[in-house]
């Protein structure tokens, strides 16, 4: 069977999985898990990605990642490659740690973001390792519900905001949602080994890929001709903050991090605002 193709485009959402070679254990002790999460934090931040959920099992892991800059392959090359070097050096061994390439399913966000976040953090419960997700230390659940400190690189607030604007109420609703899923099978169906979504979603994804390929040369030339202007000059006269963020981003000269720093907000906030404006337009 042919391997599924890799599709990357701005703001794509992925369910990423990777297993140990031959089913072997990839996280032997807590130091391994801490090292992996440290690498994940570094790469999510460096490549300006958005991580909604994660879970580290003994012989595999799950991630739910959105990539505003269409760079999943760079993130995963660093993550699996650097962790392999750490794992082998620590144990004075050679060879593969992971079984082939990572698996990345492109997800229809509006339909499956919440269900996938629930599926991922319920893995330890379904495997019989714990009786409830809050008893497992190596998933994002405890940080999301406020039981442990939430790291800056985990977009818990974005996930919770889909339930309610008030954090305490959102956490309560999310906990109920997760509890209801313990005995429910995952309802999504993966199509063509690549997509989790309906036919209309697949069509839109493929259209974006084709558009990106046909316009790549034109975009590159345009960027070279357009000089970089100061942010103050770019947004002069724009009163709406969201419109200002979008205007800056569309110049192609400023990253989400730089825009976030200018407005003194988290970069995931900038990403969310830009995505919402794109849908309206």
Tell me about this structure.
By secondary structure, the protein is of the alpha+beta class. It has two domains: 185 residues, Transposase IS200-like (Alpha-Beta Plaits); 56 residues, no CATH class. Helix content is 50%, strand content 11%. The protein has twelve helices and six strands. It has a six-stranded mixed beta sheet with strand order 2-3-1-4-6-5, with helices on both faces. It is globular, with a radius of gyration of 20 Å. The relative contact order is 0.12. About 4% of the residues have low confidence.
List keywords for this structure.
281 residues, six-stranded mixed sheet, single chain, alpha+beta, 11% strand, 2 domains, globular, 6 strands, Alpha-Beta Plaits, 12 helices
Terminus-to-terminus distance: 40 Å
CATH fold annotation of the largest domain = Alpha-Beta Plaits
The largest β sheet comes out as: 6 strands, mixed
Corresponding CATH architecture of the largest domain: 2-Layer Sandwich
Write down the overall mean pLDDT: 87
Number of domains: 2
Number of helices: 12
**CATH superfamily (homologous) name of the largest domain:** Transposase IS200-like
Helix % is 40-55%
> Stretches where pLDDT falls below 50 for ≥5 residues?
216-225
Reconstruct the topology from this structure:
Elements: E1 12-19, H1 30-46, E2 50-56, E3 60-67, H2 72-91, E4 103-107, H3 109-121, H4 123-126, H5 141-144, H6 156-160, H7 167-180, E5 190-191, E6 195-196, H8 199-225, H9 231-234, H10 241-250, H11 256-263, H12 267-280
Parallel strand pairs: 4-6
Antiparallel strand pairs: 1-3, 1-4, 2-3, 5-6
